[in-house]
Amino acid sequence: MARPSTAQLLYGVLTVVLSDLAMLLLSGARGTVGVAVIAVAAVTLGVLVAVTVRTPGAARARRPGAGAESGTAAGPAEVRVPAQHHTAVHGTEAA
What distance in Å separates the CA atoms of residue 49 and residue 3, rounded to the nearest whole number? Predict the structure, then answer.
């Protein structure tokens, strides 16, 4: 598994803090069990956000045609088509 980027870590941490705060305020939980359940839910949500968020650099790298091989801003890259090799043409073998 690749290391998370700074943006992914930031989104995850912010999700944990904000969701924890919101759930605690909305639920009014006062007991240890209630607070623990909310904390676990917030951490789980933060991990899911950190794993699923895509950074702009990663999205560009995964997009087909991106990168140095795709050509320049002036036009598309060269398209390579494999040559067709025929062993027989109309019933006779090619020399």
Answer: 15
- DSSP-assigned beta bridge partners for residue 93: 88
| Digitized pLDDT (tens) for each residue of the chain, 95 residues in all | 678 888 888 999 999 999 999 999 999 888 999 999 999 999 999 999 988 887 666 555 555 655 555 545 555 677 777 777 666 555 655 55
- The pTM (predicted TM-score) of the whole model is 0.55
Q: Which domain holds residue 27?
A: 1-54
> Is 50 exposed, middle or buried (CB count within 10 Å of its CB: 0-12, 13-18, 19+)?
buried
Q: How many domains are there within the chain?
A: 1
